[in-house]
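ESCALATION

Customer reports they have been waiting on this structure for their group meeting. Please prioritize. Original submission:
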Amino acid sequence: MAGKRNSTLINAVIFIVLEFAAIFMLYSTRSLQNIWINKATHRVLGLIWQGGENIKSYFGLREKNRALSEENIRLSEALRKLQGQKSALTGAVADTLTGHYKYTPATIVKMSRNSQHNYIILDKGSADGISTKSGIVATNGVVGIVEAVDEHFCYGITLQNVLVSVSARIGHYGAVSPLEWSGRRSNLAVLKDIPMHIEVAQGDTVWTSGFSGIFPPDIPLGLTGKSRTVDGSVKEVEVELFLDFNALRYVAIVDNQNDYGMGGFEE
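Update from on-call: job pushed to the front of the queue and completed.
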């Protein structure tokens, strides 16, 4: 019994030391982006944050969650392929929009949630075939976009960042417009620049359009809510996101192998 208490105390001390080290290194520069320029430094940061996350996780439960997440990713990928085949049979140019996407499961090492420019660090890098401008997704939504890659880690900006915009579609055949985070609530986004003549009902499902090639089409994003007129010429529609960023731990990095750049909205 005493041995178990000692082990718990040691783990707690290690966790506290790692957290203080991470906080000191993070705030010793003006921004995380400046830290990321120094590859040696951000590799150390990645290892420190990863160590902290590993200590906070129970190994058995973590492996079960990872396996479930990977299975969900595989099922989602298979479903989107079937949807692409169905579109092809109905005469749509499915291959152009769907592309050939490669999914790489990843674990979140660090993610900010409390600013207007939130970021994410994952435990996959160039050694795993990851490149910049890849999408980061979960089974129930878009997480973000990869912006910088190290050998074993990658850095991205999340949908909870005012610089990110995702090409979205209302329903399966409705209007396409950019989706952006509202900046007010973690699960609230806004569809922008919708023409006045388009009617949008509350409760419609919003999906990725696939037009830019960064994200596959038909990833569910959320449900439409209230709308309002902007400058008397276009509408904005609120979207309640399906994705809970506070509970997120496992994601997938998605790379379009055909690299169809269609000039969509993602940035």
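Sent to customer with the following note: Residues 2-56 form one domain.
Escalation resolved.
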